[in-house]
Amino acid sequence: MSFDTIWFNARLATLSRNADGLGIVEHGAVAAKDGRIAFAGAMSDLPSGWDAKSRIDCEGRWITPGLVDCHTHLVFGGDRAHEFELRLQGASYEEIARAGGGIASTVKATRAASENDLVSSALPRLDHLIREGVTTIEVKSGYGLDLDSESRLLRAARRLGGERPVSVTTTFLGAHALPPEANGDKDAFITRVCEEMLPAIAKAELADAADAFCEGIAFSSEQTARVFAAARTAGLPVKLHADQLSNLHGARLAAEHSALSADHLEFTDEDGAAAMAKAGTVAVLLPGAFYFIRETQKPPVEHFRKHGTRIALATDCNPGTSPLTSLLLTMNMGATLFRLTVEECLAGVTREAARALGRLDEIGTLEPGKWCDLAIWNVERPAELVYRIGFNPLHTRIWRGQ
Ligand code: DI6
Ligand code: FE
Fold first, then answer.
1. Could you tell which of 73, 215, 217 is best to mutate to test the pocket of ligand 1, judged by most ligand atoms within 8 Å of the CB?
2. What is the pTM of this model?
């Protein structure tokens, strides 16, 4: 067999679906052909007579699948650092919101930004993720809140994948917050999301999925169900911001609509966890937001384990509640704050994150046929990737075999 590139003399954490735990292979190799994995396994299992244009000695380093950040709001205008300062001086979230701050200030800045502005302000955040081995990101809209601005944001998100060697999937989150011109009428706004924005965005192929924020301060479960129905009509899979600040039974609702994932889930109960497991809906935990808003209610990890709900981890990178651009730190937070194991953390930013995007067939594990997206690490054991805080041991990142 003739490969383009082989990385040999490596230790692999394949995260393969059929393997136990991390799917560890000592004395391993990964080989690429036409951007895809042609071989991943023990060097002793390489097909006889193999050959490669380029041979890279990994000197015993660890190779994992490229990391997948499956929940971000990476593209937005402005920032909220000043609001952070005000909060440290004692202002409440409500006071800031009433003074025109909070999510409304990001919507205003995003609407004022051009597509180029949105791309260039997102790139430094993307570059930070990439430097830590991220090869796929999801980006949500939700700071435009009208058809033009949401479309511009999603076009900017798609363009990121042309500016950098990274795969981008986009999610339409029109039902994120109520824009000022809606004058408090949530039902009327949801009607616009369902009848105007979502069909147009799906038709323009600007989104790969649809999402909503189901919460007292955002939209009810009835309103969320309307968005899900419109997404189904438009042929888009769904995801949900569920049970972040209270239990509106968003996890169950997501499961009932066969959502790819339900995300946050601090207030999810056992019934919700069980329903998700049964539906195959992935639990995407976002410890950065939990940390930043100083939440104390933890997601029900024991219930997820008991019922076999799949767990992913993501940054939730956004200006209001998680200004975080590190998946390595996210893993450390997942372990420290939520008591996830090393295996759960690593699977959570690779295999399970890919599953949460509906892309497990293409990425997320080291298995032949998938895109050859790799992270090669200067570590002695995989636990170091979770254990260290603010240290980046990435040696090389490979996207589609390069
Ligand atoms: N959940 C959150 O915590 C953020 N959005 C969401 O759906 C808040 C976003 C912001 O404050 O800008
Ligand atoms: Fe979010």
1. 73
2. 0.98
